[in-house]
Amino acid sequence: MNKEHINTKLEPQLSLLWWILEDVRKVTLRGIEGLTKEQLFKSPIEGEYPIGAYLMHLAEAEVYWLQVISDTKVNVEIKKRLYYGKWFDPNKGKAEGPEEPLEVKEYLDALRKVRELLRNYIFTMKDAELEEIIIYKWEGGEDKISKKWIIYHLIEHEAHHRGQMMMLIRKASFKKNK
After folding, report:
1. Residue 160 is part of a domain; what is its CATH number?
2. CA angle 37, 75, 4 (to 5 degrees)
3. 155 lies in a domain?
4. In 3-state terms, what secondary structure has residue 145?
5. Partners of 142 in the beta sheet?
6. How many domains does the chain have?
């Protein structure tokens, strides 16, 4: 997206939603700060996904919902970096993520890149667009959802998984390198 088309000043509702998205992310990143690549890669407790899988799942969800809200496709190379559709799905059992620990920077870069794509879209919006209804089709049927709900859902989704990650970090007694 061409940056000349991006509003530098968001309207009030979008500004609040963007601020909340960024605040939730800031707290998530603070919570994982100091973890090693090995801690991000290994399962913190038996039967749970690694913290890194949760991080990539956050990025994966942003890509998915960005495609729904904007009716565009995200570059396949970005999806490959996230192991899109391969690493995190508790309903499908075994994940197909990387076989070796990723560098911490790889997780952070993936989250940053996807958030940049979401930002580029949100910063082209007007508050009135938040009420636009999208027909969301899924394997169980279809729903009518607003663009505002999608952004809210991204906030709620990250806060939910952040809680899981922080609990798993504590249960695993991961020591943070500072």
Report:
1. 1.20.120.450
2. 105
3. yes
4. strand
5. 137
6. 1
* Sequence letter at residue 74: V
Report yes or no on 178 lying in a domain.
Answer: no
Residue 15 falls within a domain, yes or no? yes
Average pLDDT, 10 consecutive residues per value, the chain (178 residues): 56 96 98 96 88 94 96 92 73 69 96 97 97 92 96 98 96 83
Which residue has tokens 């090995």? 38
Identify each DSSP E strand in the chain by its residue range.
Answer: 133-138, 141-146
Compute φ and ψ for 168, nearest 5 degrees.
Answer: -65, -40
| Distance, CA of 22 to CA of 61 (rounded, Å) | 15
Beta partners for residue 137, in sequence order: 142
CA max distance for the chain: 49
Q: Measure the N-to-C terminal CA separation of the chain; round to a whole number of Å.
A: 37
Q: Which pTM does this prediction carry? A: 0.89
Amino acid 4: pLDDT: 46
Residue 81 phi/psi, 5-degree rounding, is -60, -30
Distance from C-alpha of 41 to C-alpha of 83, rounded to nearest angstrom = 13
